[in-house]
Amino acid sequence: MDAKGSAADSSLLVEVRDRIAIATLNRPAARNALNQDLLSHFAQFMIDVDDDDEVDVVVLTGADPVFCAGLDLRELENGKGFQLGKLSTEGRPWRRCQKPLVGAINGAAVTGGLELALTCDFLVASERARFADTHTRVGIQPYWGLSVLLPEAVGVRNAKYMSATGNFVGAEQAMTMGLVTCVVAHEELLSTAMGVAREIVSNDAEALHVLMAGYEETIGLSQDAAMKAEQRRAIAWQTWHYDASTMAQKRQALTKRGSSKVAANEISDEIRKSSP
Q1: pLDDT tens profile 93-104
Q2: CATH number where 88 lies
Q3: Last residue of a domain, one of 201, 228, 245
Q4: Residue 28, CB half-sphere, CA atoms under 13 Å: how many?
Q5: Are residues 157 and 259 in the same domain?
Q6: For the segment 265-276, what is each residue's pLDDT rounded down to a tens digit?
Q7: What is the pTM of this model?
Q8: 185 burial via Cβ count (<10 Å: 0-12, 13-18, 19+)
Q9: What domain range is 22 assigned to?
Q10: In total, how many domains does the chain have?
């Protein structure tokens, strides 16, 4: 994939750093609303990045002040409309990314923008982030998985509340509900998301790929069926991929990492204790 992006179009900016692709929705004057053009470029980007052996993780964000306001309603107003059936693949207008997708939510994620955020594996949110489902306020129906992915993230009752009211949920409430993993200061958002991405890159890429695919496979299965699926994957992995010759090196690296994390946490605790 070209480091300049999946296309020359400036509505989607793409940069690759240290095996991490950073994709930025870049229509700030239109609150990063998804028009046909941006959707087409994003769909192509997802194909390109999934096939790129130089990329292990994707970070998705928006140009300030919002993450994404959803579909560009002006295209609906002027009669252009959206050919949803032609745009969609697997219930969405882009390929499901087989690589970990980290959402860096810098502002409002509304309706289609919320659906876009929900396709991420997990979300890091700015303190300015907020989330809303306004499908019924506009008089349209979700088509990219909201009624499936939102209750998976926040529970059925919270999902129904968001859809029935159209009210915004702030970053801290979203974390309490389970929608986002953490909330950080706005100026620390991208660096935090990149830190998470670097942690992911440091893993065994093939093992991670299989495990993440396993999560997708077991969603919706009964507990018994999911357990059996996990065991089949584990047996296949141990049979065809396990390399005992590298285990000592990996064990030492894991021990070193664990010690450094403990030390970092202890330092953070001391800083908090000494703060007025």
Answers
A1: 788 888 999 999
A2: 3.90.226.10
A3: 201
A4: 9
A5: no
A6: 544 454 344 444
A7: 0.85
A8: exposed
A9: 12-201
A10: 2
